[in-house]
Amino acid sequence: DSQSQWDDVDRYLIDTLVGEDAALAAARASSRDTTAPGIEVTANQGRLLGMLVELIGAKRVLEFGTLAGYSMIWMARATGEGGVVTSLELEEQNAAIARANAERAGVGDRVDVIVGPARASAQALVDAGVEPYDFVFIDADKQSTPEYLRLVLEVTHPGSVIVIDNVVREGSTADADSTDEQVRGMRTALADIAANPALEATALQTVGLKGWDGFAIIRRVS
Ligand code: SAM
């Protein structure tokens, strides 16, 4: 069926172009010990996040949703010397796993995993007047995405890039009548982006090991 073909092609592309070193493979494997096994990005998606970080020369990265730290490691490596990734995670169990994975991947000193509800953690960053972030990856509880986006606008600058995962959700986000709170969250976030003249955005559908889904890529222009 088409899902198994998409999986085969994803594996082919990952094996051919991307690969994972031992630390990334270990981080992915450790996801089984988290509260939500297997929902981290794929290696080719991780590389995309890393390349975007490198392309804009991002040194300061903010992430919503750490899990085992898989995407965090890709982004932390991409920030280079002096980079920092602040990652917000609800579950202490996941945060501990992610910190250990970051150590093993050689980026332990570049990551800061903050435990607690991301809304409160992000609000605390706003209140502390944190130095703005250059790149943001939103990948936590999907229904809260509009709130996360509002907070992100308080801690970014013109030129910052924001990526939101899971904006397609097997096509369900195109359904204006959906009562699924995760779908409604994504639709609200996309509408908010479209209504904000400070933001330029696109979104792309993807198929592969994560099923049928997609990323929104947003650039803050003012
Ligand atoms: N970005 C990770 C990666 O690709 O490697 C995957 C993150 S996973 C999709 C979502 C994470 O968000 C889970 O670890 C979950 O515990 C966390 N999460 C869920 N609700 C949250 C909340 N309210 N605040 C912070 N984190 C939350």
TrEMBL record:
GTP-binding is among the record's keywords: no
GO molecular function: O-methyltransferase activity; S-adenosylmethionine-dependent methyltransferase activity
Transmembrane stretches, start-end: none
UniProt GO BP: methylation
Pfam families: Methyltransf_3
Keywords of the record: Methyltransferase, S-adenosyl-L-methionine, Transferase
Protein name: O-methyltransferase
Source organism (scientific name): Leifsonia tongyongensis
